[in-house]
Write a structure and sequence with these properties.
Number of domains: 1
Radius of gyration: 19 Å
Shape: globular
Strand order of the largest sheet: 7-8-9-6-5-4-3-2-1-10-11-12
Strand content: 15-25%
Largest sheet: 12 strands, mixed
Number of strands: 12
Mean pLDDT: 92
Helix content: 25-40%
CATH superfamily: Aldolase class I
Structural class: alpha/beta
């Protein structure tokens, strides 16, 4: 069967799979306590896709052209026995299998287990090296030292290169940009600074809180000469820069000020089996129902191809024209 392309001629190359909508952090830009409190109704266990259902869908997506699969959440390490899912996904033959985590549960034993099961890489979120700021941003008083330990654990287990994601919000952690870059220069890890985005409806996003990629780059260049690097593949989201002295690379993701919708090759599978075609989508497509009523792989392929072929999403390019009260899916539901 022919791999589908969407209405803007974009192929499917990346699949992000959320394995849970739960998280043990309450980061203010993603899952603020005021919304995701004790009474918030998270998905029930029977609403979650099983590991076997996830792996089956992943195999169909690989047939459709997916080369990279990333496990997300919520916090994916809250899902028990995740190594079992990793092993099943590795068996699909996908070229690149990665995980995004806040690092809180990534012990040395867990990192080794994931690597041995077939995981290739991890991305770890780290918004500040200042312990007080880090605790304030995760809003559960979690110490930064334990995330730094998780980064070391991932590297020691061979989950490399470790990528470190930093969401930059003006007036909070923007002053930490040089310190974070300095901490990981020369380590082989890749820091990626991300513009604060208007994902979901809960984080009180304002354009004034966005530190632009240009500002981030200028801050870095005041400390170290940087040389632009070519994109490694179609659909790469990070603008890559090498340190001129050979101490590694950094990335800058500019979804707000310099959108890259035209090369977006990402599909997102929520923990309940809904397929989303954009990080800023307002609705998904129910694949769980198809699975549970006995659809064949060919039927699943045809459904996915049909959904993708009509895709026209380019929210970041038309953000200024978007309806102000547009209800977007929360990031914790579909991952980053």
């Amino acid at each position: 069967m022919t791999a589908p392309r969407d209405a803007l001629d974009r192929p499917i190359r990346d699949l992000r799979i959320s394995v849970t909508d739960r998280c043990n952090f309450r980061c203010t830009y993603c899952m603020p306590k005021e919304v995701f409190g004790r009474d918030f109704a998270f998905l029930r266990r029977d609403e979650l896709l099983t590991f076997e259902e996830i792996a089956r869908l992943a195999r169909v997506f690989v047939r459709a052209g997916v080369e990279k699969v990333r496990l997300t959440g919520g916090e994916p390490l809250l899902r028990r026995d995740l190594e079992s899912l990793v092993a099943q996904l590795a068996a699909t033959g996908v070229r690149d299998l990665a995980l995004t985590t806040n690092g809180s549960l990534l012990t040395r034993a867990k990192a080794r287990g994931l690597h041995d099961a077939g995981l290739h890489r991890v991305t770890i979120s780290l918004d500040s090296l200042d312990d007080a700021m880090f605790r304030a941003m995760n809003d559960v008083d979690f110490p930064v030292t334990r995330v730094l330990d998780a980064i070391d654990a991932a590297a020691d287990a061979g989950l490399t290169p470790v990528k470190i994601d930093v969401v930059v919000k003006r007036g909070m952690n923007d002053r930490d940009i040089p310190a974070i870059a300095e901490r990981f220069r020369g380590t082989g890890h890749i820091v990626r600074f991300i513009e604060y985005m208007d994902v979901g409806n809960s984080n009180g996003w304002r354009i004034d809180d966005v530190v632009s990629g240009r500002e981030i780059l200028e801050t870095l260049q005041r400390n170290w000469p940087l040389v632009p690097a070519d994109r490694e593949y179609f659909g790469e989201v990070a603008e890559r820069w090498h340190y001129a002295d050979g101490a590694g690379e950094i990335g800058i993701i500019t979804s707000v000020t310099q959108p890259f919708c035209g090369s977006c090759t990402r599909a997102r599978l929520a923990a309940n089996g809904e397929l989303y075609l954009c990080l800023f989508a307002s609705r998904g497509h129910d694949l769980r129902a198809l699975l549970r009523r006995g659809a064949t792989d060919d039927e699943l392929f045809a459904t996915i191809a049909g959904i993708w072929s009509t895709r026209t999403d380019r929210y970041s390019e038309v953000r200024a024209d978007a309806t102000p009260d547009l209800r977007k899916v929360e990031m914790s539901h579909i991952g980053g």
